[in-house]
Amino acid sequence: MSVGDVAGLIAAIAFVLLVGVLAVPLVKLGRVLDEARVSIKEVTDHSVPILDEAATTVATTNSQLVKVDTITTSAAQVSENVSALTGLYAATFGAPLVKVAAFTYGVRQAFARASGRSGPRAGR
After folding, report:
1. Which of 59, 104, 112, 114 is buried deepest, with most CB atoms within 10 A?
2. Is the four-CA dihedral 60, 66, 69, 73 of positive or negative sign?
3. pLDDT tens-digit series, residues 81-100
């Protein structure tokens, strides 16, 4: 064997060792990628039912919000009706009631003066 043959043999052995050293991390990287694929598949399989439940919950919540909106609209209408009724009651009975109260106060004062008393302030 010549020096060139020995150098070629050393270079071939070094290349085989280099390929062997590089093959180990590549095999490990392949296993990691396989595990990542399996993990992603499991996450996807578990996420789909959760998303379906979330969609159902959102739909149910929206229907409940429609009901609440109907209730609040009705409550607002009732509040407006009560306010209008209160205003009508005050306009119908309030002013005449004040006039009757003032009239009766005047009559009482007149009777008190006629009977000799000068009214509620006479004692002061």
Report:
1. 112
2. negative
3. 998 888 888 778 777 888 88
110 vs 118: CA distance, rounded Å: 9
What is the rounded distance in angstroms from the CA atom of residue 45 to the CA atom of residue 55?
A: 16
* CB distance 119 to 113 below 8 Å: yes
Q: Tell me how far apart the alpha carbons of residues 35 and 29 are, in angstroms, rounded to a whole number.
A: 10
Q: How many helices and strands (H and E) does the chain possess?
A: 2, 0
**0.90 surpassed by pTM:** no
Token reading at 40 = 């992603």
Residue with tokens 């003066």: 113
CA dist 87 and 79 (Å) reads: 12
